[in-house]
Write a structure and sequence with these properties.
Elements (H helix, E strand, L loop, with lengths): L2 E4 L9 H10 L5 E6 L11 H7 L7 E6 L7 H7 L3 E5 L5 H13 L3 E6 L17 E5 L15 H14 L4 E5 L6 H7 L4 E4 L1 H5 L3 H9 L1
Parallel strand pairs: 1-8, 2-3, 3-4, 4-5, 5-6, 6-7, 7-8
Helix pairs in contact: 2-3
The protein binds D-xylitol-5-phosphate (DX5) and zinc ion.
């Protein structure tokens, strides 16, 4: 069964606790937290104090997606704030710093993950595959919720699953961007095990049914 990680980027920011309890009630598996710095992506969202405030609100894993420049500067603070999974982007720093950041995340007791923007080829992930517990494939340009799903990312997902089966079979694949009741099937067929959904989850008439569709 696949997992769903509803993205609180589409939640009501004045009622995050209520919306996270709603994710629990509807059977969501994780809570996806999008962190943006206005540099790596052209948007600013939430940061360390919010992750810290949300930690005691839920027992669900916090799936924190850092869309920030040189994340090595902040990984320790995000782990200490309560992230269970911490994703950094391969495009956000040098290979050396990205490796160091992933190792630091693991040393601190959190699960390390790397993400690839749509224009970044699967090959760019290769130096990091053995250091990660998850690879996040963006199926939209990072920065905003509610964008159109890029089906042309599916070959990249499939390619990474094949490579991971050789070098790190335990490592899971997550997709993020434009996932809805239709596009989720394509993602799962191509190897996605965790699916992030922001607008489709929060706009669903029947959120519990939507969760079941994504998990099926
Ligand atoms: C985009 C974020 C996503 C976003 C997805 O940069 O990483 O997690 O919340 O939103 P939807 O599901 O609406 O595409
Ligand atoms: Zn995200």
């Amino acid at each position: 069964m696949a997992k769903i990680s509803p993205s609180i980027l589409s939640a009501d920011f004045a009622n995050l606790e209520r919306d996270i309890h709603d994710i629990e009630k509807n059977g969501g598996d994780w809570v996806h937290v999008d962190v943006m710095d206005g540099l790596f992506v052209p948007n600013i969202s939430i940061g360390i104090p919010v992750v810290k405030a949300l930690r005691p609100v839920t027992a669900l894993p916090l799936d924190v997606h850092l869309m920030i420049d040189r994340p090595i500067r902040y990984v320790e603070q995000f782990v200490k704030a309560g992230a269970d999974w911490l994703t950094i982007h391969v495009e956000s720093d040098t290979e050396e710093n990205t490796l160091a950041a992933l190792r630091k995340i693991r040393e601190l007791g959190c699960k390390p993950s790397i993400s690839l923007k749509p224009g970044t080829p699967a090959k760019a992930a290769e130096p990091f595959l053995k250091e990660c517990d998850m690879i996040l494939i963006m199926t939209v340009e990072p920065g905003f919720g509610g964008q159109k799903f890029m089906a042309d990312m599916m070959p990249k997902l499939k390619e990474l699953r094949t490579v991971l089966d050789h070098v790190n079979p335990q490592c899971i694949l997550e997709v993020d961007g434009g996932v809805d009741g239709n596009t989720c099937a394509l993602c799962k067929e191509n190897g996605a095990e965790v699916l992030v959904a922001g607008s489709a989850y929060f706009k669903a008439q029947d959120r519990a049914a939507f969760v079941k569709t994504v998990q099926a």
